[in-house]
Here is the input.
Amino acid sequence: MEVENKHIIIKHAIDGLPTESDFELRSTPLVLSVAQGSKEVVVKNLFLSIDPYQLNRMKTCSSSQKTFAAAARIQPGQRIDAFGVGKVVVSGNEEFERDDVVVGLLAWEEYTVVRPGTTLTKVDPHEFPLSYHVSILGPSGLTAYAGFYDICKPKKGEKVFVSTASGSVGSLVGQYAKLSGCYVVGCAGSKTKVDLLKEKLGFDDAFNYKEEPDLKSALRRYFPEGIDIYFDNVGSAMLDAAVANMNLFGRVALCGAISEYTDAGKRAALDMVDVIYKRITLRGFLALDHLNLYAGFISSTSDHLRHGRMRAVEDISTGLESVPSAFAGLFRGDNVGKKLVQLTSL
Amino acid sequence: MEVENKHIIIKHAIDGLPTESDFELRSTPLVLSVAQGSKEVVVKNLFLSIDPYQLNRMKTCSSSQKTFAAAARIQPGQRIDAFGVGKVVVSGNEEFERDDVVVGLLAWEEYTVVRPGTTLTKVDPHEFPLSYHVSILGPSGLTAYAGFYDICKPKKGEKVFVSTASGSVGSLVGQYAKLSGCYVVGCAGSKTKVDLLKEKLGFDDAFNYKEEPDLKSALRRYFPEGIDIYFDNVGSAMLDAAVANMNLFGRVALCGAISEYTDAGKRAALDMVDVIYKRITLRGFLALDHLNLYAGFISSTSDHLRHGRMRAVEDISTGLESVPSAFAGLFRGDNVGKKLVQLTSL
Ligand SMILES: NC(=O)c1ccc[n+]([C@@H]2O[C@H](COP(=O)([O-])OP(=O)(O)OC[C@H]3O[C@@H](n4cnc5c(N)ncnc54)[C@H](OP(=O)(O)O)[C@@H]3O)[C@@H](O)[C@H]2O)c1
Ligand SMILES: NC(=O)c1ccc[n+]([C@@H]2O[C@H](COP(=O)([O-])OP(=O)(O)OC[C@H]3O[C@@H](n4cnc5c(N)ncnc54)[C@H](OP(=O)(O)O)[C@@H]3O)[C@@H](O)[C@H]2O)c1
Here is the structure.
């Protein structure tokens, strides 16, 4: 059977704030079959992950691309790989059969031909909503879990600050921190988000950073006893303000720097004398280095979900054509929780 | 017996580059005796340590002083405590007797009355020159040892960059790095210093940073395979350049930021996206947190000295009146190796 496989591409490198017009929907014919012995698996995509880091792969050039994305760079016109959950349509790999539900690196397209060497994992389609395997039980979840437990090394009673706290990663970091007996304050970019943090996600406090003219003194108000752990998703001025309010032996998990993704001129200007005297550790990390924690992450997080101790916050758009606005919206703060695009249902 | 005890004070807070005229030599009478049961020890000072960090205690106010030096702040007119080696003149403490040679927190003065609670340690005055107990076997040595081994966690073959490499701490970091089988490049501020690094201290290479208009490309030349470990003594632009040239999983020991001590406007502006993708760790540390390593540090370093595998580089001025120029000289790069002032001999 042949189908028209719609996919999303970038028209050109994107260096500033992305907009819908930077993208295009294209379509190419795809035969839903695999060559004998090819080990390929054709997946019909159900939910696709929409992630800020993709923007770093779309730039003309950036220092990070030297190390990260010489290979990972997205060229105009090229398919854009992305994590997702899908259903096997046809399989040349004996580990998978038709109708298996799988998660792994798919792409911003309707069907993905998964080549051997790409990790694809079967999931139980019954216990949790399928989208959870892309959000709370997917890479965002592992990022929050590994970053919080392995990089921040929390102790009970410590004071934790999380930025983009209502986002995919941030909303989970805050919940793990509460489960660890920490005091947690988050910041986010709207009243709706702040209310969510305080009323639904159990944060001890939260504030709208866009209404704070002076971030340093805002954090002094929210943390009169100082910050022990800062889970940084934004970089630049917020990072400076958090470090200025940190306690001795404070730890900063450098998870993301979204405010710098769209504006490379924005930089933190840390007071290193302060960092030294306070013996602060700042550590950049990528979730993919922490796959050794995967089994523990899945079992504990599933358990928290089963017992109602955690909740997934998801923001789902429908149809492949909504990918550009879903993606551009990340940088406008449109999303509340994990941004996903649903293409079809099981 | 009563003596005139000369001491050095600051006349006012010092916020920029220190100069000799910021200091004054004063004198107060001191009776060389201790009250019955007081446990005090009167020490005649032999060598005093001259350290850049003292400047941070002399400032009007700095963010670091909130944590570090509310108590440690040096007020105008006040005696200025400093590490040193001296000889016991009179002791009310049964652990010490007259003529014992001791190291510990003394002050920029001729005699120091050491009160109970201040750690004073007896040293063997015969095996090594007395000055070594302030330099290579003193706090500078522990800083280099703890910072390099505990913070940088070197592996054989790794590429190490050290700034202020001919200085007290830097010259030792480079030597430890060579002893650990690393490739080591240092930077310093003059040809004499660069020659010392290459010809006497076994650095694989060295350069004069003052002759490099573009630090990033200089480091690219000296580290074509990238930097694994950066031992940072200067902060600001050099830190940026080093991080830009770091390899995946690079480690930065934030030991000092001397270029920022005299100019709080100077700041590193790290590319956090790069720091994240390269999974770099930056860690501020103070030697005094690593006293658990003290015994191992002393025994291994003494052993290296005995076998000629390490050498102490010292820069000694004579007489208490030379303290102000010795200190101000640190910030002009006058010193080659550990800066000490010798007051008298045994
Ligand atoms: N290290 C890793 O392995 C790893 C893995 C996944 C994600 N990440 C990083 O983690 C961060 C969060 O990712 P996520 O998937 O959870 O995204 P998200 O938080 O769900 O969505 C992005 C959010 O960032 C905020 N934002 C956008 N532009 C901003 C700006 N200029 N300044 C401050 N905030 C801004 C917006 O929320 P507000 O309305 O609150 O502004 C927006 O909703 C990103 O930096 C991402 O790259 C890292
Ligand atoms: N964390 C700790 O526990 C700890 C303990 C001790 C020392 N430290 C720090 O370690 C660093 C080195 O201390 P040290 O005792 O070994 O001093 P040092 O290196 O012996 O002396 C200071 C040297 O710094 C360099 N320098 C001065 N101003 C500079 C500037 N604006 N930019 C770049 N370099 C400059 C000069 O060398 P050049 O000619 O090469 O420029 C000068 O000789 C200092 O930052 C100090 O505060 C930290």
